[in-house]
Design brief:
By secondary structure, this protein is mainly α. The protein has 3 helices and no strands. The longest helix is centred in the N-terminal third of the chain and has 42 residues. It is elongated. The two termini are 39 Å apart.
Amino acid sequence: MAAVHPIEVLDKRLRDLLELYESELSDAVDDVTEKFSWKIERLIEQFGAEELEINLKYYPITVLPKNLHQAFGPVSALMWQDEE
């Protein structure tokens, strides 16, 4: 029986966390997108679908974390500070 290395356990758990986190985040994004879809419909009525389609790409969404460190690094750092 091969020994399990702690780094392999950590890697598996972080991969599992990432999968769950992305799934929940995707669901939340879908909910928020649906919530604001009426605003897009109003913009289509005002400016036309083609004009809106051309311009949507110029407004990047920058609030989502790019990796787990951005998402949880501040939390883990604060927890370590509390223990000191």
